[in-house]
Design brief:
This protein is α+β, with helices and mostly antiparallel strands and about 525 residues long. The protein has 24 helices and eleven strands. It has four domains: about 80 residues; about 100 residues, no CATH class; about 140 residues, Aminopeptidase (3-Layer(aba) Sandwich); about 90 residues, no CATH class. The longest helix has 19 residues.
Length: about 525
């Protein structure tokens, strides 16, 4: 009888292949695998990856049902293992009932604290950069702040405050909540503490295997789409975004956050999501995409950091974001390991399609880390050519010429591979896909204008420059209304930009006012005004 490992390897080989004969082989291998005893080691992590890929790329309902049964068998098998074994061999695997250890933001832990099914345990803190005393002097009640001035070591301080070791994490979360009105100061202190937390749950949902949208539809594959007209796809009209019920929206946010939690990561838009900005697009071939911005107190002044999660048959398959400014966006994509080897190019183009049509972006730029800078895996996989295939080109002219010559060799010489040295050279420049007729202005361009203006006219005195520019802008734009704190925060940047660019016409001044008013509450309206501003 074939072993679990050999059957699993056979399935891995066929996982991304389709056709009547292949589907029959996969079914037979899976039926045999389902009857074979499971190992109790790290092979289970690889088995999970295989099951997730097959769950997202099923060829029939019959096959999907069999995959779901194997998922149940795997979960039951893990539940029987000892906690010590799970921690030693399967920590951070994302498998059901196994622990996840990482360093998370205060906001994410504060949110997770509301979930009774997830146990959070303080594990350790580096405490190399800051002492707890220095933080608590800003958060404790006035009567207790004196304890921090006594130079107590952390253990002594906690003893004085009568905080027992099991209470330490909840104590920390509670104390840092007092800094919620100063989010960046809070982040600074929290990051300095480097608090590592272990997460564990007896709920099967807290796992990569079962972290799935319940309301997304299944798509059954007859093939994998590797060759397609990406320009045609980018220009194919998007369907209207799906109107979600409140409970569906909450489920969507939870699944997105959990997908990163189980990876030991988080992104700012996912953690600081503005629910009003959340849109969910159900697209072709089982792909759906959620896009979302951040709450007003976390936003960038002159661009929108728009996060996304891409789902494949309801499973989170990719995450990242775009820093959108007018028709230009800096873009990053991360495909979860278990979904690589599928339709990566098609997923990437679907993401660009959404950003292109929702935000009117026609210039996408990618930074070198995505294809190899300080990223050996990117060099080894030749990730640069993934982007090149879809029209991305180095901004550096010399590197662009080298890339053209290399690509000619790849097409003409069978089996030719670009060496690591050349691939590393490509990381000396950003790459871009330009779907328009020019390179749009970006945030760096604006920053340079404002910096030059302040240096020349105010000898670097930024407070004076901002104060006088705000007065000038209010007068020129007839902007007399009282602003809330988020609109007020936008005023210096907008006013300095308007003055540095010497903007006097009523239309563009009106668009700048619109940007001030919409930025805190509606990133779509803000982006619309910004695009119009540059083209007015």
């Amino acid at each position: 009888m074939a072993s679990f490992k050999s059957l699993s390897n056979n399935l891995k080989t066929l996982a991304n292949q389709f056709g009547a004969d292949v589907n029959l082989k996969k079914l037979k291998y899976f039926q045999a695998l389902h009857k074979t005893a499971m190992p109790a080691n790290k092979e289970l992590t690889e088995h999970q990856h295989l099951l997730l890929f097959l769950s997202a790329h099923p060829n029939s309902k019959e096959f999907l049902d069999l995959v779901n049964k194997e998922k149940e068998r795997l979960a039951k098998h893990i539940k029987k293992q000892s906690p010590a074994k799970l921690k030693k061999e399967l920590e951070n695997s994302g498998l059901p009932y196994t622990p996840t250890l990482s360093c998370y933001s205060h906001d994410l832990l504060e949110w997770l604290q509301q979930n009774d099914s997830v146990q959070m345990t303080y594990d350790y803190s580096t405490e190399e950069e800051i002492e707890l005393n220095h933080v608590l002097q800003f958060t404790l009640p006035e009567l207790e702040k004196g304890l921090t001035a006594a130079g107590n070591l952390q253990e002594d301080l906690l003893s004085e405050l009568q905080v027992k070791p099991p209470q330490f994490l909840s104590f920390l979360i509670d104390q840092f909540s007092n800094l919620n009105k100063e989010p960046f100061i809070k982040d600074y202190f929290w990051n300095k503490l480097s608090v590592y937390v272990e997460l564990k749950s007896e709920e099967i949902k807290f796992s990569k295997l079962y972290n799935q949208l319940s309301f997304d539809t299944s798509y059954f594959h007859t093939n994998l789409l590797r060759s397609f007209d990406h320009i045609e796809l980018l220009n194919t009209e998007l369907p209207y975004f799906t109107i979600l019920k409140p409970e569906q929206q909450e489920e969507l946010i939870e699944v997105m956050r959990m997908s990163l939690l189980l990876l030991g990561r988080e992104t700012d838009p996912t953690t600081f999501i503005d629910r009003r900005s959340l849109r969910f697009y159900q697209l072709e071939r089982g792909i759906s995409i959620a896009i979302y911005g951040m709450t007003a107190n976390r936003q960038l002044p002159m661009e929108s950091y728009v996060g996304y999660t891409l789902f494949k048959n309801g499973y989170p398959a990719a995450y990242g974001g775009g820093w959108v400014h007018g028709r230009k966006a800096l873009f990053g994509i991360n495909i979860f390991e278990q979904f690589r080897g599928g339709e990566s190019g098609y997923m990437f183009m679907q993401l660009l399609r959404v950003y292109r049509q929702v935000f009117e972006v026609d210039y996408f730029e990618v930074e070198p880390y995505q294809y190899g800078l300080d990223n050996p895996e990117g060099i080894e996989s030749g990730a640069f050519w993934f982007y090149y295939r879809y029209g991305f080109r180095p901004l550096d002219k010399e590197l662009n010429t080298i890339a053209e010559n290399e690509y000619s060799k790849i097409k003409s010489k069978k089996g030719y591979r670009t060496n690591a040295k050349t691939l590393t050279r490509f990381t000396e420049s950003n790459i871009a896909l330009n779907l328009g007729t020019k390179v749009p202005q970006g945030v760096l361009d604006l920053r340079k204008r404002v910096t030059d203006y302040i240096a020349y006219n105010y000898k670097g005195h930024r407070s004076t420059a901002a104060k006088e520019s705000i007065a000038w802008f209010r007068d020129k734009a007839n902007f007399i209304r009282m602003c809330n704190k988020y609109e007020e925060a936008m005023l210096p940047d907008i006013a300095l930009l308007a003055r540095a660019m010497n903007i006097n016409d009523e239309t563009r001044l009106g668009l700048l006012k619109e940007m001030i008013l919409t930025k805190p509450t509606d990133m779509y309206a803000f982006q619309e005004a910004l695009v119009e501003f540059w083209e007015a």
